[in-house]
Amino acid sequence: IQYNDARTIFCVADHPCEGVDAVLVDGQPAGEWQAYTLVDASNHAITVVEFGQRQDEGANLVARVRGKLHPVTGQRMVNPATVIWDVLANIGGRAVAEADLDPFRRECDRLGLDVGGRIAAGESPQDVARAICESIGAQFCADAPGLCRIAGSAAVARARVSEGPITAQVSLDAMANDLTVRYGYEDGEPSGSVQLEAPDYVARFGRRKADLEARWITSPRVAYAVAERLLRDRARPQWQITQITVPRTVRVFDGITLAHPLAPVAGTFAVLSREVDLANSRSAVTLSTPIGDVPAVRLVRQAFAYGAQSYAGVVQQTVGTDRIYTITEADGRPVVGASVLANGFTRTTDAAGRVVFPISALPPGSYVFQITALDGRTWPYPTVVT
Q: Which residues pair with 45 in a beta bridge?
């Protein structure tokens, strides 16, 4: 957003940021610029980018930032639970405590999930929370304990059902054995996608495709992990179990232990929806569980937008007789154990995402590095060595 009349200073975030990694003008890396935090006329801290020269009217300006900092710890907020809490409590003014999302936070940490994104005009705090959850294969319910849960995760049993009416049917509606996740949204468009399939279930049921517009995922690592986890459930048919009557106190995401003689499955399952009967203080709930063995999943295709912005994750430097390249994901995490082929020489990145080539292997000239991550993703990195 233009900040001064000279069109040299632009606001990129209405909060302090950990850093600005790249600035693009009409899709190309900007020349002279600097980013910093200042206090606006309303005494509110914002992050701005200042250019060395005036920017033309109508120019498409994009800044890639490492986002909002936690108001207490000062750390960048990337855990989905922390981001949702910030959106609901600090932006939306809802009465939500950070501790309310602790179970969801721990599960996201265990799965290595992190997010980043931009709130569009007109989105409500609950819309944003739902969008974040949809991006990572989770569920959000404003009335549920803990507010959010990872789809398919274990639920705490609150009631047991062994008698009464019950309806069960197999549903293929949500089945998908070929899943494409699009991620890394900038200026409304994804910068990458990953496609996975469950070949055994494709052979059994035919190809059933689905797409996930994961606009809160920034990392190809997270996109791959989410696609893999979702496909292991969604490639299989689902039992939909309805008309189960439980106490009214049972809420969405609570667990129901099913031990009914007419039920096709037994175990504890999370409540996906409920309908309260005000006359008798009971609720009719719906459960769901996949059928069959967990499928093997394989990568079909990956795609990247090979514009200049794709290479912000590679930093190069020359130290003594070595050329050192540090390769990171879009969220700043190092790409560990990746194979890097350059000018006929292959090296592997260390725990910091660094790979070292001797100067003799890379004399001055133009090269295209071929980078292959441990999860099978590959991408080129063109560079000029001087």
A: 39
